[in-house]
Write a structure and sequence with these properties.
The complex is a heterodimer of chains A (150) and B (83). Chain A is of the alpha+beta class and 150 residues long. Chain A has 4 helices and 8 strands, in the order βαββαβββαββα. Chain A is 33% helix and 32% strand. Classes of the chains: A alpha+beta (150), B alpha+beta (83). At the A-B interface, helix 2, helix 3 and strand 7 of A face loops of B.
Chain lengths: 150, 83
Amino acid sequence: MVRIQKEDFDPGQELEQISQGLLSVGGIASFLGLVRDMNSQKETIQAMELEYYPGMTERLLQEIENEALERWPLDASLIIHRYGRLLPGDRIVLVATASAHRQAALESCAFLIDWLKTKAPFWKMEIGPESAHWVEAKAEDRAAEAKWKR
Amino acid sequence: MKILYFAWVKQKIGTDKENISLPASIKNTGALIDWLMEKSPAYRETLSNKNVIRIARNQVYCGWEEPVTDTDEIAIFPPVTGG
């Protein structure tokens, strides 16, 4: 299940619902991404604006999820990604995977967030007290993605 | 042809989308970029370094040799920063 939305979500509720009725599920792994108040260069972030590409973003997120469903024995998976204006402390993204056993759930969850970082068509602008700038794609994210290549 | 721009590409060019009639002489995405660069100094400056921009054709990532047709939707954007 892939959702792209402006509104906030309730992680507790989402985790509860992800495997409702699926009694074969033994473990649910998750990652919750938040807006920090400072970036890697120690500059203050007052707000973040996220842009996305309607049509392509949904398709790519679904492709990423389909790959996880193909590579691991999952009973359910969930990606929720927000867009629009967010403040420090706000939730940006939730990834969750459910499986009979923990290894598939934990690995596929890490895979999904690593791929989201390099493949998901979103663009982030960090707004500081004096200026705003577009976040640049990071080399370490590409390295993290590379470890999942098969 | 519909062309969409995102993030700093959109900001520097000054628009998020435009419709163009693709000249018959333009056969691929690389040639399209070169042609767009001629439109103004802003286009030239924004699109001149292919290492810092990416392109998608009909919502699928592609390279600079991808054939293009007048009915395509092209998007030009920086490397993504989702997640």
